[in-house]
Amino acid sequence: MNFQPLTPELVSAFEQIVGHQHVLTAHGVEAEIYADYGRDHTEDLHFAPDVVLRPANAEEISQIVRLCYEHHIPVTPRGAGTGLSGGALPIHNGVVISTERLNKIIEIDERNLQATVEPGVINQVFQEAVQAKGLFYPPDPASKGSCTLGGNLAHSSGGPKAVKYGTTRDYVLNLQVVLPTGDLIWTAANTLKNSTGYNLTQLMVGSEGTLGIITKVVFRLLPYPQQNILMLVPFRQIEQAAEAVSAVFRAGIIPSGMEFMEREAIAWSSDYLQIPLTLPEDIHAHLLIELDGQDLDELYKEAEQVYDVLGHYDVGEVLLADNATQKDELWRIRRNIGNSVRYNSVYKEEDTVVPRAELPILLKGVKEIGARYGFKSVCYGHAGDGNLHVNIIRGDLNDEQWNVGLRQPISEIFELCVKLGGTISGEHGIGLVQKGYIGIALPEVNLDLMRGIKRVFDPAGILNPGKIF
Ligand code: MLT
Ligand code: ZN
Asked: Which cofactor names does the annotation list (predicted)?
């Protein structure tokens, strides 16, 4: 790619737009903070941007992008940097645009069950703001306490509640976007239905910041489910835990959470959080099952049905969380598995996804491939969605084994997903680290269509270059 270097004149122009204190460089007073913008939560990767800009609004972003378009400077948009596929890494240096100052909840429209927000709002802050009004925004990635809604949109993030409520893309009605030419558009209308031309909104969602920079979002909301039941179910055989998942759905129950954790995942996370948890020797996996709704009696009836299903498997003593603190602890353990794995070792995370009932075959295949190639994996994830996070642990693998040797087994894992009717990412995106594998999931014809779309939106190829394909 033929980008131009950043000139001092351009840096001065950026200072005029965002203000001196919001231009960060390697040599500025905030050099340490600047360095953080070169990494995200993907492995141990780091790329140095030439400059980090922290604009305050859509108009400033539009002016910055227009200048970059005219001068052929690469631009990498960034939320909170919690991504797991390297989507926010400035691999061609250039400009990083952080949306952290676009952090206003502009309106919660209780009449229409909608909210208009800026992309830099933290997911959990938004959830709590709408909950205070009796409303519900379900997408809840593990990093909800720190990830931003803009980053969630970039990958159509999911989380445990996706199994019942869908992912980020299912809540978006309309987006304000700065295009890679600097033009500012709204993609649709604030309506629940829209049959007016191509769906630019859904094209933007999941495009990983390669087609535009989202500057405002209109979300639809739901009434908040007031009741829930949470149970932690221990299994003696890992395959049986995976099999029980689809059996629960076949019994007519749609849980609001159906999470799988193999023994090491739950053990590492509870150790990491220093939350004591008894794990009998013969337990090899757990399901964390949540039921939610407005009527507790109804939920207990559903829980009975779940128990009936579990009766067909070799399970240990089920823990039914009986107060808010216990529920919160169990969810904290689940949400911190990624952090605990990161704390224990450098790792690669593969975000495999298959039709739900194929999960047992996927899990068995992952372990078999690991045994054949000599790597250890810690698996967990959104089992109800057939979405298994496979964490390959670096352990004692040398550079050659880690950087080159794992390509073949990872390809085999992805080929197995595709063979089972699945694909190579359910919610973490392709970004940088999975782009070498995208051909396993998508034929050249599909990729050419996507490249064509990219060219239409971004003729100069400046926006988040080097990602997806
Ligand atoms: C999760 O489900 O925990 C996340 O998608 C993955 C992570 O944070 O490692
Ligand atoms: Zn996840």
From this structure: FAD
Helix (H/G/I), strand (E/B), else coil: 358 = helix
- Residue-wise pLDDT for 16-30, tens only, equals 999 999 999 998 777
Q: Nearest CA to 370 among 422, 427, 416, 424?
A: 416
Q: Whose CA is nearest to atom 1 of ligand 1?
A: 142
Q: Which helix (H) or strand (E) holds 95?
A: strand 95-98
Whether 319 and 237 share a structural domain = yes
- Distance in Å, CA 426 to ligand 2 centroid: 8
Distance (Å) from CA 353 to ligand 1 centroid: 13
Q: What is the mean pLDDT of the chain?
A: 97
Q: Calculate the CA dihedral of residues 241, 242, 246, 249 and round it to 10 degrees.
A: 40
Per-residue confidence band for 392, with pLDDT thresholds at 50, 70 and 90? very high
pLDDT at 281: 96
Which domain does 285 fall in, by range?
A: 227-338
Taking the CA of residue 157 as reference, the ligand 1 atom at the shortest distance is 5
77-103, pLDDT tens digit by residue? 999 999 999 999 999 999 999 999 999
To test ligand 1's pocket by mutation, which of 156, 337, 342, 382 has the most ligand atoms within 8 angstroms of CB? 337
Together in a domain, 368 and 433: yes
CA of 176 to the centre of ligand 2 (A): 27
Residue nearest to atom 4 of ligand 1 (CA): 142
pLDDT surpasses 90 at 322: no
The tens digit of pLDDT for each residue in 395-405 reads 889 999 999 99
337 Cβ below 6 A of ligand 1: yes
How many structural domains comprise the chain?
4
Structure token pair of residue 347: 């790792």
Strand 222-223 vs strand 257-262: parallel, antiparallel, or unpaired? unpaired
Number of other residues whose CB lies within 10 A of the CB of residue 159? 25
Note whether residue 313 is domain-resident: yes
Looking up tokens 């529920």 gives 327
